[in-house]
Amino acid sequence: MGNSFGCSASGERLVSAARDGDLVEAQMLLNCNPCLAKYSTFGGLNSPLHFAAAKGHNEIVALLLENGADVNSRNYCGQTALMQACRYGHWEIVQTLLLFRCNVMRADYLSGRTALHFAAVHGHVRCIRLVVADFVPSALYQAIHAGTDVDRGGGSNAKGKHEQSALSKFINKTADGGITALHMAALNGYFDCVQLLLDLNANVNAVTYHYGTSMDLIGAGSTPLHYGACGGNLKCCQILVARGASRLALNCNGWLPLDIARMWGRHWLEQLLAPSSDASIPTFSHSNYLSLPLMSVLNIAREYGLQSSPTSSDEIDFCAVCLERPCSVAAEGCGHELCVRCALYLCSTNNVSSEMLGPPGSIPCPLCRHGVVSFVKLPGSQAKENKLHVSLGLCTPCILHPRDLDQPSLSHTPEIGRNRVASVPSEIRCPVTCSPFPSMAIPLCTCNDGPCPSFEPGEVETQDGSPHHSQASTVDQDKIEGPRLDKTTCSSMFWGRRSCSREHQCNSEINA
């Protein structure tokens, strides 16, 4: 049985190639039928783009996108390839998806999680840095928090305030039950993620709410400090208190963060979380993962591409970092020239503090160590936009309720390449609001076929063999302060319990 995009056998071969990283096989299949890039497995669980993003095959991700795959396509759970890449920490793929202008604001159908939530819950700080790149202007760090525009032209404050508002809304976007990315990073003890989110204006006193489908064992009205007390990471709790988290905040159960720490056996936090505590709190500098030049170089890469094409071959200044590609961008301030690929890699990976050489969030120049706040494009290059493609998937209402097509025929582009997809005109758009998964009662399931931790400290156990623990256990395990602890939380502990069945289907298909 086939589908509208080609033989299912070829589609399954492409899925296998995307999962296994077989670039030659994927290239051959797409050369024969580029529409296979939009193929999805039986039941629409995952597309080849989801498989490649989850498994970390960056070249196949780029190949699929170049052949018309929808960068914002969703799987059965409503998750995009960006969410899968953030779940598993593949920052190179996050970078590629951003170059193709993926929508970072998309939330899944089950719990309303964005890619930022997926990166925070597993501690992938580089993915967080990239996901927020379009919201952090390449300007002085103080301007982000003051809401002012400090460019050399002395522009108005409106632009800076707008950027600050957009950044704050995105960072503090809530999932089901009011859970923010800061809640999840504090719960799992990822100090680097907590520090970066706080530097990006995350609300340190955001509270969860009681309505929703999430099963919150701490209780509604809990702040990130409540979650940090449950997780037990000393440094996370210290920086939350240092940034203004209230130790006197009561949740709906009437519990202080101190009560949460005692329930879960985090006795080393009692001195810090006591309401009348006089414990000294260390001074924390700005996050080393804050990258101010990332927005500027990302926009240059989107507009001109990663391959530099100099207008004259007589005198070519090759990049001093890679010695392979011509220079295409220059660092503001010191003026040293790099190729756009090296500049993008530098802004995406650097985690060296540059406060001694420049303002917080600046990236040290690899040639002179000067603090770089932004990059500018060198003259002489022609703009080359990435081709955007539109998904051809139709929702159920579109199929059941076709529009009257007796209107004038649509105009067609005279020449459309086989890899180009024409946009869907407004005349045939669905008149009904499309709801991919309407509300329905789904039986609750146990987490990973086992019981979740209870409130009693003596009953807190860990199932090290669970898939979710194995995904999160490879990142920043050495960052937990105090006594060595087994993980006592699970990924579905604070998410919608009804989501377990669907999400396990998609994950099991990827991890098969």
What does this structure look like?
With 512 residues, the protein is mainly alpha-helical. It has a domain at 316-377: Zinc/RING finger domain, C3HC4 (zinc finger) (Herpes Virus-1, 2-Layer Sandwich). The chain has helices at residues 8-20, 23-32, 48-55, 58-66, 81-88, 91-99, 115-121, 125-131, 141-146, 157-171, 181-187, 191-199, 224-231, 234-242, 257-263, 270-273, 294-304, 340-349, 396-400, 467-472, 499-510; strands at residues 329-331, 337-338, 363-364, 371-372, 375-377. Strands 2-1-5 form a three-stranded antiparallel sheet. Strands 3-4 form a two-stranded antiparallel sheet. Strand 3 and strand 4 form a beta hairpin. Helix 6 (91-99) runs parallel beside helix 8. The longest helix has 15 residues, at 157-171. It is flat.
CATH-defined fold name of the domain at 316-377: Herpes Virus-1
Give the beta-strand count: 5
Distance between the termini: 22 Å
Which percent range fits the helix content? 25-40%
Q: Give the DSSP E fraction (strand runs of 2 or more residues).
A: under 5%
Which CATH class of the domain at 316-377 applies here? Answer: Alpha Beta
CATH architecture of the domain at 316-377, by name, is: 2-Layer Sandwich
User: Structural class per helix/strand content?
Assistant: mainly alpha
Q: Tell me about the biggest sheet?
A: 3 strands, antiparallel
Number of separate helices: 21
State the fourth-level CATH superfamily of the domain at 316-377: Zinc/RING finger domain, C3HC4 (zinc finger)
Broad shape: flat
- Element pattern in H and E: HHHHHHHHHHHHHHHHHEEHEEEHHH
In oligomeric terms, what are we looking at?
A: single chain
Question: Roughly how many Å is the radius of gyration?
Answer: 24 Å
